[in-house]
């Protein structure tokens, strides 16, 4: 009764493409030249010129403001989750005490 039914797919659906044919190529031998041995250490190559990031007071203020907003939002979400867990735990504990009291009172009557 509770057995899962696994769907069957006898034929794949969708557009099927035939496999690509790879044609062999001829290998032509070439003359091997040994790499030259370095005589002295080469000077360091100059670093490629990259644009530098310049922070103006306005962009620095925007970055600080955005970071503060993210920290405050994440903090509020975490605190609310912690509060929800605390309230749930307290309510479960109160329910457990009420149920224990009812069971204990019922056992005394018998």
Detail the topology: elements first, then pairings.
Elements lengths: L56 H53 L1
Description:
The chain is flat. The protein is mainly α and 110 residues long. It contains one helix and no strands. The relative contact order is 0.03.
Please give the largest β-sheet.
none
Indicate the overall shape: flat
Estimate what percentage of residues fall within beta strands. under 5%
Write the element-wise H/E pattern from the N-terminal end onward. Answer: H
What oligomeric assembly is this protein in? single chain
**Average pLDDT, to the nearest integer?**
82
Q: What is the total tally of β strands?
A: 0
List low-pLDDT spans: none
Structural class: mainly alpha
Number of helices: 1
Question: Helix content range of the residues, please?
Answer: 40-55%
User: End-to-end distance, in Å?
Assistant: 42 Å
Rg from Cα? 37 Å
């Amino acid at each position: 009764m509770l057995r899962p039914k696994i769907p069957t797919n006898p034929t794949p659906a969708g557009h099927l493409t035939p496999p690509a044919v790879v044609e062999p190529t001829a290998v032509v031998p070439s003359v091997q030249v040994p790499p030259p041995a370095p005589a002295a250490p080469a000077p360091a190559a100059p670093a490629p010129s990259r644009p530098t990031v310049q922070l103006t007071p306005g962009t620095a203020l925007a970055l600080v403001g955005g970071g503060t907003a993210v920290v405050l939002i994440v903090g509020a979400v975490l605190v609310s989750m912690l509060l929800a867990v605390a309230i749930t735990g307290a309510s479960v504990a109160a329910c457990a005490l009420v149920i224990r009291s009812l069971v204990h009172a019922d056992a005394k009557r018998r």
